[in-house]
Amino acid sequence: MSFSALLHSVSYAGLWGQAQLSLDSFIDKAADLGFEGVMLMAKRPHLSVLDYGPSERAQVRKHLEKRKLRDLCIAGYNNFTGDLEHGDIPHREIQVHYITELARLTHDLGGSLVRIFTGYENPAGGYHAQWNLIVAALKECSKRASEFGVTIGVQNHHDIAVGYESQYDLIQAVGEPNCKALFDAWSPALHGEDLDAAARKLAPVTAHTTIASYQKRPRYHYDPAVVNYTALTPHVQAVPIDEGFIDYHKFLSALRAGGFRGSVAYEMCSPLLGGGSMENLDRYATRFLEFFHEFRERSGSVAAD
């Protein structure tokens, strides 16, 4: 994949009460808006492995090719540390099989990248044991995905290895050539990290990044005993790309300077300021494309033909 703009189908999946499109209609939407590729949600109501057999996959691939959406990332949904309370259930094997099937699906659609997660920290096990479980699972997933020419991309989303130093360590620990980071800015930004330093460190091992922009909304709990308020963790509100607190010019510039040449996806994966109408979704997506094209022109980054 080149330095190109993808649209994540989760944005039009209706999961937060926003307007919903079918997978075929989403593909047309992404192409009509001017995106160069798509990131397809590998679960219902979009690209579930339960619903897309050989004939359905061939139709999707034909549709992508017809609309000239040349870059593709399949977005998987896993949690390697789920259900540690019940060791008799082969939970890791089930998830490795799911991710292997996502690699097969990706190959069948003409793509080469699957996005997955690590795991939420589970009180049923220690941190070190969960880390080792995830490393072993990622090794196996990567080896199985290599049979399809597919890269496993680990997004910094779930608890284990969500810190940027830990994400780097995780990719090194897995040590498979087709296991890369899918390093996003919003996690380290919320952590209060230096985005420039984080991006430069992760750039050499990053295959893709997904962008979403937010503003922080303060929250308080009233304490009548002191007639005052206690500050709580701020609520994070999704806003258009140029209205949030994350400096994406700085982040993308640092990724590029560090050697990143992957793809960039835009997602709307929480309630939006302004509501979930189709018009508002399209407005956010269009604003992102304007930002991205401007950045690419200023940085001299041009997507390959």
Largest sheet, described in full? 8 strands, parallel
Helical content, roughly? 25-40%
Low-confidence stretches: none
Helix count equals: 9
Strand content: 15-25%
The CATH superfamily appears as Divalent-metal-dependent TIM barrel enzymes
| Distance between the first and last residues' Cα | 11 Å
Strand/helix succession:
EHEHEHEHEHEHHEEEHEH
Coarse morphology = globular
Main structural class: alpha/beta
Look at the structure and give the mean pLDDT: 96
- Our count of domains comes out at 1
Spatial strand arrangement across the major sheet:
6-5-4-3-2-1-10-7
CATH architecture classification: Alpha-Beta Barrel
Structural commentary:
With 305 residues, the chain is of the alpha/beta class. It has one domain (5-212, 246-299): Divalent-metal-dependent TIM barrel enzymes (TIM Barrel, Alpha-Beta Barrel). The chain is 39% helix and 19% strand. The chain is built from 9 helices and 10 strands. It has helices at residues 23-33, 54-66, 91-108, 127-146, 164-174, 186-191, 195-202, 248-257, 278-299; strands spanning 5-8, 37-41, 71-75, 113-116, 151-155, 179-182, 208-211, 213-223, 228-239, 263-266. It has an 8-stranded parallel β-sheet, with helices on one face. It has a two-stranded antiparallel sheet with strand order 8-9. Helix 3 (91-108) runs parallel beside helix 4 (127-146), helix 4 crosses helix 5 and helix 7 runs parallel beside helix 8. It starts with a strand and ends in a 6-residue tail after the last helix. The mean pLDDT is 96.
